[in-house]
UniProtKB/TrEMBL annotation:
<dbReference type="InterPro" id="IPR036610">
    <property type="entry name" value="PEBP-like_sf"/>
</dbReference>
<dbReference type="InterPro" id="IPR008914">
    <property type="entry name" value="PEBP"/>
</dbReference>
<keyword id="KW-0449">Lipoprotein</keyword>
<dbReference type="Pfam" id="PF01161">
    <property type="entry name" value="PBP"/>
</dbReference>
<dbReference type="InterPro" id="IPR005247">
    <property type="entry name" value="YbhB_YbcL/LppC-like"/>
</dbReference>
<protein>
    <submittedName>
        <fullName>Lipoprotein LppC</fullName>
    </submittedName>
</protein>
Amino acid sequence: MLEKLPDVIGHALQGVRAGLEQIVFNNLGMREGLASIQLTSMAFADHSPLPLRCTADGEGVSPPLQWAGVPAAASLVLIVEDADSPTPNPLVHAIVVNLPTASASMAEAAMPSQDNEGAGLHVGRNSALQPTWLPPDPPPGHGTHRYAFQLFALAEAPQFSDSPGRDEVMDALRAHAVASGLLIGTYERPDGSITIQADATSVGPLAAG
């Protein structure tokens, strides 16, 4: 969504960022008392660069995720936001609802994208109003963006609409969330060029990304 902005705009907007305090994880007003979920990825470490293949400069597939420590719950919700988008609120890159609590992972490319059908998940609307994974595409020259992968366990399974948006998900989380986990991946598009961000922690087929 933002990769076509000229470098001069990216520089001018460097101080304009939504902020981590605006992501869902920090904006529910109910952090105290929530249990903790350990959310990780085999493709990147916490606060480390996302593989190029998971961005708009690569294949644009969603990264693999794993989690542990989920308490007794009815369903899981995943939301991915760009905390550094030059917008009042973080850009939503993905929403997945009604994940079964029996699952403990999500495979690479499980979320649908422009060239990938995904794995039949119940996917909500991103900030482009599409029920897909929106690959990271920060403005050139805007600096490093932090992408917040947020997983929530819900005590009850709400009846979500076909493609729920951020507001609908927020309402459900305020009413039913009992545990949460957070994983941060980063990506930066420097001035006028694409930087291939090698991740030494990548394993398996993702090592080349």
